[in-house]
Write a structure and sequence with these properties.
Layout lengths: L1 H12 L5 H6 L7 H10 L3 E5 L1 E3 L4 H14 L10 E9 L8 E5 L6 E3 L7 E9 L2 E2 L14 H8 L17
Organism: Araneus ventricosus (Orbweaver spider)
InterPro entries: RNaseH_sf
GO molecular function: nucleic acid binding
Length: 171
């Protein structure tokens, strides 16, 4: 039995299998409940959420540094900036939420985000010098070319002025 306990702990410490999956394997004839008890007795296995790593390459990191250096002396210009973000919820599966058995003697696992195909729901929000944006509760008109401009004008920036022919954009 000691050898089987060691096998269970060793397999789980790799972080690539769940207790349920391990219990189904033929080479380890131990019940899932027994495996749970074995894991509880170890003081170095934890059930953790995997950390997510953005898909940043060296060029992306350099672009971020360049952006900061360029904008570090801004004063009044920040009054005309909106920070926005969006969150996509995948309706057809996990949204990057993955757990694993972590061996605290090793480094934490990080997984790269991958793009999913299928139904999804997108939510958006933003804030700036004037506060947060109130998002419209209904639908925007069908002929709306740039919803961002409409949302800004209807909120706390009614005098938002974009140079002729330009639209809001991100760097």
């Amino acid at each position: 039995m000691i050898m089987q306990e060691r096998d269970v702990v060793l397999r789980l410490s790799r972080g690539d299998i769940s207790l349920k999956q391990l219990a189904k394997e033929d080479n380890i004839p131990v019940a899932k409940t027994t495996m749970s008890q074995i894991v509880k007795l170890t003081n170095y296995l934890q059930y953790k959420k995997r950390k997510q790593q953005p898909m940043l390459k060296a060029i992306h990191k350099q672009m971020r540094v360049d952006w900061v250096v360029y904008h570090q002396t801004w004063k009044e210009q920040w009054h005309r900036v909106i920070f926005s973000d969006e969150k996509k919820f995948n309706l057809d599966g996990l949204d990057g939420l993955a757990f694993y058995w972590h061996d605290i003697r090793k480094e934490e696992e990080i997984f790269s985000k991958s793009r999913q195909v299928g139904g999804s729901l997108m939510v958006w929000g933003g804030f700036g010098y004037g506060g947060k944006l109130n998002l419209p509760s209904g639908r925007l008109p069908r002929n709306t070319r740039n919803p961002f401009t409409v949302i800004c004008r209807e909120n706390w920036w009614p005098k938002l002025d974009f140079p002729a022919g330009q639209r809001p954009h991100s760097r």
